[in-house]
Amino acid sequence: MPQECSEMARQSPILPHITDPLPETLGYGPAGNAVEVVERFDEIEFEYAALRRACALFDQPQRGTIELRGPDALGFLDRMLTQKLGDLQPGQARCALWLNRQGRIRADLRVVALEDRVLIDLDVHAVGATIATLSEYLFSEDVHLLDVTESVHRLALHGPDAPRLLARFSGPSASLNAAGKVTSFEIAGVNVIADRWDRAGEPGFEITVPTEHASSVWRAILAHAEEHESEPPIRVRPAGWHAFNIARIESGKPLFMLDFGTDSLPAETGVLHDRVSFAKGCYLGQEIVARMKSLGHPKQCLAAIRLEKGTAIPSDWQPVTGTPVFARDNQDNAIGTVTSSTISPMLGGEIIMFAMLKWASAQPEALVRFAGPGGGIDAVVQPQLQFWPRPA
Asked: Confidence class of residue 3 from pLDDT cuts 50, 70 and 90?
């Protein structure tokens, strides 16, 4: 989905205020409706190192927000979405999928429960359709859905020092150290909501702020790390999409609209067990999901591929989204396509990737091949999506 794009449908409220360093940007989303996101502020190696060793601050105009108010909000979502949400308490968050009647994915959602409302964090391009289709199933429920994407903005903080940095603003809080916990506090006099969601293999927080104060919060986070002495010191660096993308692929985190999309079934995505509860009541598309489970497997699924050790590759070769993948013993017909790829710093510069493959070809240790400029490039399917786990 990230691409060069001359016309942007949406721009971050922070971007016009960032001039040093002047960031490089790209378009996120379909041509004509792309969102301008920062690809990098500085050298990608520095930004990635901050994410892995300290913490990195990200601007995320590509994320949208839906607000639900009313006493029936969580009960309604529990009946609609794939995840069990009826027992979600204020200060908790869970991921879920919104499906159509055919069991295919309409949107990948992060549901955040607060004291007075529920927030849904999702890809900005899915906001309108999600509100429209959810609203079709509202009858007597006391629930109000509102697109608040323009009134709130999303930042993110990822890295091993992220909890300690936010604790300077919030004070000691167990919510900062537990995945799926949500806490509210002030940064620079502005109330923010921090959702602990480790999307890049490090402690991570999705930070929701009022749009008119987004720049103030951004500057305050960067300045606070610099101005306060601590042992050991905390360092934070602004970072762009490229550094995050490397880390999330290494950590085995597929992304909606990149690695799976609106034509995908939950069982194909690699996020089934994180997004779907098989112990809850009915929801839209459940019959298809249950049938798929009873049948054993889908026709295709997302797989992780790494090059075989000793494989010689051209210095400038890296598969891009859409690159065909072939079985090692049959290169007449592709068995799938690459969805994401990167060069992994944690694996010594190895090329790693996700690919949507036919089920039979996506099994662990399956031998695959790419058509390289100088001949076939051999690779192997690994047993799990995660390429690199942070050492305990």
From this structure: low
Q: Under a CB-based contact definition with an 8 Å cutoff, are residues 119 and 108 in contact?
A: no
Q: Any residues with CB less than 8 A from the CB of 51 and at least 6 apart, and which?
A: 158, 159, 200, 202, 239, 243, 244, 247
Q: Kindly report, residue by residue over 300-324, the tens digit of the pLDDT.
A: 999 999 999 888 888 889 999 999 9
DSSP reduced 3-state for 74: helix
The confidence band for 37, taking pLDDT boundaries of 50, 70 and 90, is very high
Cis bond upstream, residue 71 (ω within 30): no
> Which tokens sit at 182?
């949500």
Count other Cβ atoms within 10 Å, centred on residue 385.
Answer: 18
Provide the greatest CA pair distance for the chain.
64
pTM (two decimals): 0.95
Q: Is there a cis peptide before residue 16, judged by omega within 30 degrees of 0?
A: no
Domains in the chain, ordered, with CATH?
1-297 (3.30.1360.120), 299-382 (2.40.30.110)
Q: 299 vs 331, which has greater pLDDT?
A: 299
Query: Which amino acid does the sequence have at 101?
Result: R
pLDDT recorded at residue 310:
82
- Interior/surface letters 129-143, b for 16+ CB within 10 angstroms, e for the rest: ebbebbeeeeeeeeb
CB 199 within 8 A of CB 184: no
> How many beta carbons lie within 10 A of that of residue 375, not counting itself?
10
57 Cβ partners below 8 Å, 6+ apart? 155, 156, 157, 218, 221, 222, 236, 237, 238, 239
Contacts of 272 (CB under 8 A, 6+ apart): 266
